[in-house]
Amino acid sequence: MRVGLGFDVHRFKAGRPLMLGGIEIPFEVGLDGHSDADVLLHAVMDALLGAASLGDIGDHFPDTDEQYLGASSVALLRSVVDLIHERNYRVGNLDVMVLAEQPKLAPYKKDMIHLLARELAVDEMDVSIKATTMERMGFVGRKEGIAVEAIVLLIDSAKER
Fold this sequence. Notes:
This protein is an alpha+beta fold.
């Protein structure tokens, strides 16, 4: 078994859709980034890559590469999952913590969990998404952006046989 930790942060930016966990969230601003800036999926990808000792998303999808401009983070996640499977790992479980003053994520968590479970080929019970505020402290508390932490357990499929 291997454990990976991911963290990402993006600032809010007007004129962009807000993508979180592969879901478009109705909100007055989106997040700034080279791809679709899905901070939740970026943290998950970094956790997966870290657990498999494959670097980070910047190594695989650099923001200097125009082919990733506006890219769907769901598509990038699929590429990461393929890399994980190529190394004979499968996801055991995923735990995600979203740090955001706004928007409220409760109405969208079920859809995010469904999408992540499908993309990671796990049961929905193996995916946890939680959200908290920063009690108005720091850049998240000032409503300047969103931060996400993710931790994942990978299981070596070759050793299960």
